[in-house]
User: What shape does this take?
Amino acid sequence: MVQAVLFTGELSAIFVLTGHFNSVILFSILTVCYMSILSVSQTWLGLQMHSNIIEINFLYIISVPWISYNPFLFTFIMRTLICRIMVSCGMGKYLGSKTWRDFTAMNYHYWTQPLPSILSPYFDRLPNWFHFLEVLITFIVEGPLYILIFIPHWSARIVLFLGSVSLLIGINISGNFGHLGLLTLLECLPLLTDEFWSYFIPFEVQRYILAEGFYSNIFYWFSWSIAILYTLVSIISLLSISTMQLPKEEEIQNHWIFLFWFHFRKTINLIPEKFGEHPVFKKLTQIYYYAQHWRLCNRYSKFAGMTDFRWEFIIEGSSDGEEWEEYITKYKPGPLDRPLPWIFPGHMPCLDWMLWFVPLHYRRGNPVEWYDQLIFGLYEGSKDICNLFEYCPYTEKNPPKFLRTKVYSYTYADNGNTWERAPVGILSHANK
Assistant: This one.
C-alpha cells in the first residue's frame, strides 16, 4: 500500500512538470499522498520541513490555476508564506537560545548541527568577529529586511530576494539539510517580478508555463477569500511564537538590532490583548489549530534552539559482554577519522537526522520511545534496520546478546582526524 502511495505521488509530480493536466487535481493528489505518508511515519517525518511541503501544496491548489488569469493571487499568497517563515524564524531565534542573543550562536552551529558537511570545519574556524557578523546578518534578513516586501517598487523585492537567498545558500553549503534548503530557496522565487523573469525565460517557454488557467470569476474570488482567510489565520502562528517569555533581565537588549524584535513582538502581542475575547479572533484561532492539525498552516522557528554541545549515541553490540563492536551509521559522526559527508541536496537520511535529537531528549530526562524500538530491532538482527546503517556487526543470522549505548561528547579535531571525543556515560539495554 505504501509503495502504491509513493508511486501515485511520483507520477502526479511528473504530470505537474509536463503542464498538460489539471493542476488542482494533481496538487490535491500530491497533498493527500504526502499526508498519508506523514500520518504513517509519525516522528520520522515530523519536522517543520515536512509540514512545509503539505502547506505549500495546499497553497498551490488555491493559487496555481489562476496564474494565467491573474498571477497576483499566486504571488500574494507565496510572498505571505515566505515572509511568515522568515520572520517567524527570526523571532524564534530572538526568543530561543541565549546564544543567539549574545551573538555566539554561530560559534557552535557548525559542529553541533545535525549533519555537518565537508565545508563545516572551515566555517567553524573562521574568526569570532565573522561569527558575530553572521548572527547579525541573520537577524537582519529574518526580520527588518522583510519590511521591503511592502514596498511596491521591484528593486526592493530584488534586494529582499538577494538577501534571503544569500543567507540560505550560506546555510546549505555549510551543512546537510536535505530538502529544507531547496524548498525554502524555491519559496523565495515569487519575491521576483514577471519583468525580472522575462529577461531569463524565452517567450515561448512563458506561454507554455501560462498555458493552463480557469477563468470563472466565481471560483477566482472564492480562492481569494481562502487566501485572505489563510493570511489572517497565519498571524496566529506568529502569536504562538511571540508569546514565549524571555528572562526579565533580557527583555530589553542593548544591541540596536533587537529594537526591531522588541517592538515587533510588543505590537503583535497587542492583538490577543485587544481582541482575545472577540468572537472573530476566537474563530480564527480555532481555524488555525484545525489547519495546524492537518499541517495546512504551520508554526516555523528553525534553528531557534542552538546547542553548545554535541553528544553522540554510539550503539555497541557484543556476543559475550566482553568484546564490543560499534554499529556505524551512514552519515552522522561516528568513527573519528571518517571524512564528513556531502549529501545530495534533497536526500534526507532520516535515521541519521533523528538520532541527533535523541541525546537532547535524554539530557532533559525524556527517553525516546522509537530509540528503544530501534534497540529491540537490533537485538533481533532486523535486516530492514541493519540496512539503515553503514556497518552492522550483528545480523539476523547472528544477533547480539548484549547491546549498549556509549555517550560521547564530540568536537572537531586538530590532530588530523575529523573528530575527537570524550566519554560521557553508558546506557545499558536489556534484551526482551
